[in-house]
Amino acid sequence: MSQALQPCSLFFGNQDLLVQEAAEKCINEVLEGREREWSYERYDLNDMLSEQGDTASQLLQDYPEQKRWCAQALRSLAGIRAEQGDTATALKHYDRVATEFGNQEFEVLQAWKAAADLLWDAEKKTEAKEYYQKIVTRFDRKEIPPVYKIILNISKKRLQ
Known about the structure:
Layout: H1 15-31, H2 38-41, H3 45-62, H4 67-83, H5 87-100, H6 105-121, H7 125-139, H8 146-159
């Protein structure tokens, strides 16, 4: 893996936006000082996403005892598959975060939010609401961090 791609191994937060931003950053680093060649090398985005997916998959295999990293890698892999247009596989990976790493609450919350948003944006509102409901059911409690509350409130609004 090239030096420019190494910082792109895990994506956090809003998957679609962060995958796109990370890919753009990698492209800019690779092409720095070679702007004229930009159009010739732009097609490598899918190759870069595939490579990042391979990196995330390898992390899952090599460090299964690192639950937090594995949950993050799996969520990142889901975001990559979503960006590549493979919604079904992305949803399977998001679901795996909850089933295999259920004690990693923030990762579960982010995975369900990403899955719900992916479906919502695809105009699959009924399926999206199932994920928003999971968020409300699991995280609607008094003592949660402020970022959880933001996601919880968004989920509640989408359920109305």
